[in-house]
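User: Structure please.
Assistant: Input sequence and predicted structure:
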Amino acid sequence: MKACLPLTARHSIYSAMSEIKNIRDDSERPLLRKPPWIRAKAPVSKEFAETRRMMRELNLNTVCEEAACPNIGECWEKKHATVMILGDTCTRACAFCNIKTGAPGGVIDPLEPEHVATACGAMGLEHIVITSVDRDDLDDGGAMQFVRVIEALRKAAPDTTIEILTPDFRNKPGALEIVIDAKPDVFNHNLETVPRLYPTIRPGARYFHSLRLLDKVKDRDPTIFTKSGIMVGLGEEKGEVHQVMDDMRSSDIDFLTIGQYLQPTRRHVAVDRYVHPDEFAAYEKMARGKGFLMVSATPLTRSSYHAGEDFAKLRAARAAKQASETK
């Protein structure tokens, strides 16, 4: 029998597709020429090929490939890959994202947690990042699969720290709480852009729901580091970016990432402008002044770029802050 999506999930897909139709119809708009500071290493190394082969053998997806990350050559050469669980098909249709959109039909790979743990061991990771597609077709939005993956990693690689980058679990009561209680070291959920641009850039999501999600993580378990990121170059204004920083700090978010939006294909929303590195440096200075423990703001910054090194810095920053507060 052919599996059917629940009405709410189908509505999420179709409404998202219709809301971004006008953006994707703008395929005749001339592409902006990339500036000299947008440079990425070509994926040609032996280590890159080995990482790719391992992912294929374990039937694992990575956001590195699916989202066409510009840093894939550098990261995979170091055998750092961000595993994307819950399949390769998303039930949302964000205007910036290159991941396939469709109806997964409730399918989950039961061997996925074990395969993720195997890949972690094979790569010798001290820090691993796990993300996923949105799964509005599942009653829990895929939350229990995150829990299973975390448990498998804790069993197979107890010394590896775990960072998760989750969907918003919108309209999935209780889903967020079971993921928090699995105690990842870092809980990341990206706001992606400023609130004004949500209707066109992220139509299936709600800005304040995403913000509140991160607030709930801290309320339930203050020991977990929280992290969120946005893209720039989508038409936002500097004042709006500063306001997002304030909103994040009001939710006690520890780590902020800001990177340049890069248009994956002509079907996706066009780049409004390429933000100069000096502007990224100014954003970083502003964010540190607002109290973030860790900030990464460069044109090629992505959520999991240098995640292991940044986690070490994040932990050191918290320890230094706590030490200063006890004096």
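Residues 307-325 form the longest helix (19 residues).
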